[in-house]
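Re: your question from the hallway

Yes, I did run it. Sequences:
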Amino acid sequence: MRMPDAETLLSQLAERMRPQVRADTALIGIHTGGVWLAERLHRMLGLKQPLGTIDVSFYRDDYESRGLHARVKPSDIPFEVADADVILVDDVLFTGRTIRAAINELFDYGRPQRIRLAALVDRGGRELPIAAQFLGAEIKIADTEQIELQKSADGRLSLVVNPMPVQERN
Amino acid sequence: MAYNPQLNAHGELQHLLTIEGLPRDIIVRILDTAHSFLSVTEREIKKVPLLRGKAVFNLFFEPSTRTRTTFEIAAKRLSADVINLNVGASAQSKGETLLDTVANLSAMHADMFIVRHAQSGAAHLIARHVAPYIHVINAGDGRHAHPTQGLLDMFTIRHYKRDFTNLRVAIVGDVLHSRVARSQIHALTSLGVPEVRLIGPRTLLPTHVSELGVQVFNDMAKGLKDVDVVIMLRLQNERMNGALLPSAQEFFKYYGLTPEKLVGAKPDAIVMHPGPMNRGVEIESSVADGRQSVILPQVTFGIAVRMAVMSILAGNA
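Structure:
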């Protein structure tokens, strides 16, 4: 299946967010693809709060069955979370479990005023009551496939479809 | 690959018993994971839910305050339930064997044992006899190993020096009785430190120690020349009265770290000590509290490193 152009989707996503962000809105990218997108959105929207990044490995609900992720990156939230207006940024919205983990982690930094979600792609398949307030596109693919965001050496983003590794299927 | 009692069938870490023979990528993964836990220990709520519902037993057959406490804090920050047992004071004095004690605690649904014992090999013995879902961490066995101390020392060195492959590291003092030194030597060589020096009197250096790939110095001034890292070892009080040393004063004169001796090291050298320190025996107060000392950061890093070890082990079911 042909994937839409990630750069076009990113521009559309930014324009959908623009009227809805305030001067003090904070972005937090979810590792790894979400961080790439959040870096770009942060510049495009000219936000003043420093960019946050989050790695949800310590909050995942499949630790019991799959162990600790092999390459955990530090989370870095360089602003006061209490009473902040936060937008989480992820590349592909699927089951919603990553977003659940990110929300839990965020609350261990403080009580935000509001959390919204921006995703480049929604592929459906939700297992939790979670929705994106800002979306690039909806894409339907087979259950045995996964969509991946890639970044080239010059920083260009693209979407590819790969077979899903067996242990990640439910 | 040779049989390694620390690894499971998939080559993952099942127990942490010693750094000797531990694959380098596992050491690096522990240090990287600890780095991520450091940001957890700096925020408002210093807890993550990874070990929720798990029971961690601190099984100390030998007294310890710092190590037991930092393991307890680490387990609690992973949301585990922690049970502290000073076994020396109870079961063993009533004649129960080590393995019976462990079998009884296993029947209480333990998920992890943190073991300190005066006998080398105690943690290995326990690891061989527990059910496959139970993980064992060696918190010091006799003169043999103290792997989490070795790992936190590596974390400290990496934090301040970034790269291991251009370093000169000196370990000073009672190497003979030190499980910490053994763990450090294995970790340093495995991480690619080109020059590890041991400094101490002949009576406190193991024979044949150069087979571990280290250089031996009896003269502290020569040994400290141009080193990047100085690791002082604790001189155990009980050694001072035996035949190995004339007196604590004489040891301090030749091997105590003073500002004058430290001048020979590189100007940006860091000074480490696993604690507890004997001020005025192996280290002068002005050095212990000085600009180059990273002794207290070692303690802080120790919590993150122990969180990393426990969360990696408990995830490898």
